């Protein structure tokens, strides 16, 4: 198996904007462009607030003017919960449409799969089908975060979650969750592979300290090898830059692009 994904099938590289919450959208765009990345996932908590369509359009234009793509909208919408707490998916969707992004990232609730009762599973899965249908009508995909404190959080959780959900417009993200063993990380990736829409890329020490991506290349080459053999066009986005320092982004971007086979 090749160590890098073939350049002919190279996925898009990008940056999750919340890596730099203190920076303006234009500054985030400048950083991503200067590092040769392909696009940005824009966060709904700070850079493109839910329902602020003017801001969404402005960010879309700034992003496109720099030759970048708006790869996703990180909405932080929690399935089965957000509607009741005041964040409607309609507002999330109209913002994503104004941003002209192909994907909305959501959470599978806020309770881990092992702790969730049957009521919670029903609420989350019912809402997942609902928002997938709404987004599909607007031509936007829904990507479910692979994250702790959600139903899509482990091999067992992901296996059940994706067995129960069959909607064609529902997809899964993936990232190497620190609490999981190396084997479980790989198993979880394989479980969501058929639904994989995006990968968040970073490297942490066991004590949860972010480290340069270059220190995690052996693991990531193995994971990218798996992805490249089955889902070669899956975008890979950088997150958790050391110290939240923009000065550390160029090195991580260069490492990512090298692994993806970019020039």
Summarize the structure in words.
- The chain has a single domain, classed as Divalent-metal-dependent TIM barrel enzymes (TIM Barrel, Alpha-Beta Barrel), CATH 3.20.20.
- It is built from nine helices and ten strands.
- It has helices at residues 25-34, 53-65, 82-85, 89-99, 118-137, 155-164, 182-192, 217-230, 249-260, and strands at 13-16, 39-43, 69-78, 103-107, 141-144, 170-174, 196-201, 203-204, 210-211, 236-238.
- The strands form two sheets. The chain has an eight-stranded parallel β-barrel with strand order 1-2-3-4-5-6-7-10, surrounded by six helices.
- The radius of gyration is 17 Å and the shape is globular.
Can you lay out the helices and strands and say which pair or pack?
Elements: E1 13-16, H1 25-34, E2 39-43, H2 53-65, E3 69-78, H3 82-85, H4 89-99, E4 103-107, H5 118-137, E5 141-144, H6 155-164, E6 170-174, H7 182-192, E7 196-201, E8 203-204, E9 210-211, H8 217-230, E10 236-238, H9 249-260
Parallel strand pairs: 1-2, 1-10, 2-3, 3-4, 4-5, 5-6, 6-7, 7-10
Antiparallel strand pairs: 8-9
């Amino acid at each position: 198996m090749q160590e890098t994904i073939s350049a002919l099938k190279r996925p898009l590289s990008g940056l999750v904007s919340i890596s730099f919450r203190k920076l303006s959208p234009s500054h985030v765009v400048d950083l991503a462009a200067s590092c040769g990345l392909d696009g940005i996932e824009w966060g709904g908590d700070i850079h493109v607030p839910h329902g602020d369509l003017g801001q969404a359009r402005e960010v879309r234009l700034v992003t496109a003017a720099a030759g970048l793509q708006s790869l996703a909208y990180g909405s932080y919408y929690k399935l089965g919960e957000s509607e009741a707490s005041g964040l409607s998916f309609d507002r999330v969707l109209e913002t994503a449409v104004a941003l002209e992004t192909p994907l909305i990232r959501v959470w599978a609730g806020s309770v881990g799969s092992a702790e969730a009762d049957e009521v919670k599973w029903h609420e989350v899965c019912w809402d997942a089908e609902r928002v997938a249908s709404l987004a599909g009508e607007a031509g936007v995909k829904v990507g479910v975060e692979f994250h702790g404190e959600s139903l899509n959080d482990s091999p067992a959780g992901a296996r059940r979650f994706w067995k129960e959900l069959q909607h064609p417009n529902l997809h899964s993200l993936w990232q190497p969750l620190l609490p999981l063993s190396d084997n479980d990380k790989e198993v979880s990736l394989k479980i969501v592979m058929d639904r994989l829409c995006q990968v968040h890329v970073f490297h942490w020490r066991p004590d949860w300290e972010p480290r340069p991506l270059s220190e995690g290349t052996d693991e990531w080459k193995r994971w990218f090898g798996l992805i490249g053999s089955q889902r070669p066009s899956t975008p890979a986005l950088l997150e958790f830059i050391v110290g939240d320092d923009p000065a550390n982004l160029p090195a991580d971007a260069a490492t990512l692009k090298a692994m993806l086979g970019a020039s």
